[in-house]
Each structure stands twice: as structure tokens, then as C-alpha cells.
Fold these 3 entries.
Entry 1:
Amino acid sequence: MPQITKDSTAQTVITTFEMTPGTCEDLMEALQEAYETFISKQPGFIAAGLHVNDAQTRIANYSQWESRQDFQAMLRTTEMRERNRKINLLCRSFEPVMYDVVAAFD
């Protein structure tokens, strides 16, 4: 489970996917399968969560990595490049963005 703390040294990546309600379930299945069988097994992976809005037009993915380089190495693998091409067909757009935690509140 992701842990959000200000003093964390983990690299946070938030990826948003925009799609239609007709492809939401297919995209969510593809993302879950990618995490279960590949992404979560990559060096530096810490944790992730998938979120879908009630209109099923957006999925938000929050993931944590030990370093920026670990995340980038996973993206560069042949398997992930192939998966991303398929994911791209299921959505209008997706964009992973790296963030630093500035504050966290309980």
C-alpha cells in the first residue's frame, strides 16, 4: 500500500488516463494485469493504487518507486513499451508525471 509522507525518498508517479465509459473496464483490466504480472515485479517498485471516477471517464494511478531511474527503466523495457501501445488504444490519452511530496495530512 502506498505511504505518503513528506520525508519519503520514494519517487511518486501519478498517471492519469482519459477514456470513455465503454473502454474503462477493459483499460482497468489491462492495468491490473500489468501490475499483477509485470510492473510490481520490477526493481525499485514499492506500491501502487488504481482509482476510477464515477463517470468511468478517468483512471488515476498512484505509484511509488525507490528512484526515478527505477521507474524510467521499467518504462523502457520491451514488455512495458508493448503494453503501453495496447493501453494507448484503450484511452484518449495518458500521462505519467513524477512528483515530490511537499506535505501530507492525517
Entry 2:
Amino acid sequence: MEIWINPACSKCRSALSLLDAEKADYTVRRYLEDVPGEDEIRAVLERLGLEPWDITRTQEAVAQELGIGDWARDEASRGRWITALAEHPRLIQRPIITADDGTALVARTEEAVREGVSRGREN
């Protein structure tokens, strides 16, 4: 499995600690440095079963600058959201675990991290 993190994020650090405690096999992606492109974001959204606005950190300063709070949340606007996430990765909710079973999840809670570990061990 892979976990997308921002090392400055306490939830990311907690998730890594839990993965280590569970002896999970994972790789770390510092997505602010290794920025996912639009196609990769689309693929992760499909794995998550979510829309781009569902994983957007709308309280970030750049979100305020872009006026994201006023953007439509519909199919016609989906591309605009994905472009914003690719151009401003700080907007991406974290951490995200892409599990070996082809799914992904936003791992902001201990339960979600454990679910990611479970999905990784089922294969």
C-alpha cells in the first residue's frame, strides 16, 4: 500500500506510527513534493468512490484565494476541481491510503488506518 502524507500533518504522523505498530508493508509518498497529476487524482477518486470536492481542504488559504467555496459541485465542474487539486496539492485531504486491493481511503482516523491495513493484508 501507499500512503500520501504531508510530514507536517499530525494526522499523517499518527497514521505512520500506527502503520509501523501494525508492521504494515507500505511506501510513503510526500505528495506536496511528488505531486499527483490530474489522471492520478482521477484514478484515486475512483478508488475512493468520492468526488474531488469531497477530498478538498476548503479551509486552506489557497482555497480561499481561488474562491473554491463558491464553485459548483457537479459533473460539469469536476474537471475544474481536479485541476485545482493537481495545481495546488496542499488542497488534497490527507492522509490517503491506496490499498493493495485496488481501493483507497482517507485515513484521518485510527479506524480508517486499521481498515487500510486490513485491506492490504487480505491479498
Entry 3:
Amino acid sequence: MRDDIKINERAKTLEQKLIEKLETVYDPEIELDIYNLGLIYEINLDENGHCKVVMTFTDVACNCADTLPLDLVDTLKTIDGINSASVEVVWHPVWKLTRISRLGRIALGISPK
């Protein structure tokens, strides 16, 4: 898991599956997945199998702000051990280009440094 994503111990048990699924959910405007784009801030899984994700968007006027969280919820619920999911969208801290992973920078043609 990325160092800049806060994740609780229960969610860590599903870490690899979470990463795999997060990498399948794309920001349609930037054409990069939300994991490598750095939109995910926090992942918590409770004892009842509810997964809560705290995320942001690159801009407050993002056209996908209504649909992308719903897509993410549907994707998370396909993971064994996650019975339900919710997404909290936050605007602080503000997303910055520095949140894009090295892989994401390469995919977007940005210097990987």
C-alpha cells in the first residue's frame, strides 16, 4: 500500500486485493486509476465487513464526482471480506500532482522524479 494512504489493521489483511481493485477504477478525465493518481487518502474496514474509503478529486469541478464513488463502492464489494462499502469525499488536504505515483507519472508522460 502507498505510504500516503492511511489504512487500518483489518483492511491491511486485504491490502493486495484492495490495490488490485483500486487500480481498476479510473478517473475518466485523466485516464489513470484512482490509486496511482493519489485520490485515496484512507481505507478502513470494520468488524462487520464495512469498508470506508476517504478520497478526493483533482478538482472540485470534476465531472465524475457523482459517479466515481458509486463505481468504487461496487468494486470494493466484489472483494471477499467486504460486505458493504461507502466513500467519503473530502477536499482537505487538497490533491496535488505530487500524489501521483511513480507508475502513474510514467503512464501520464510526467517525469517520474
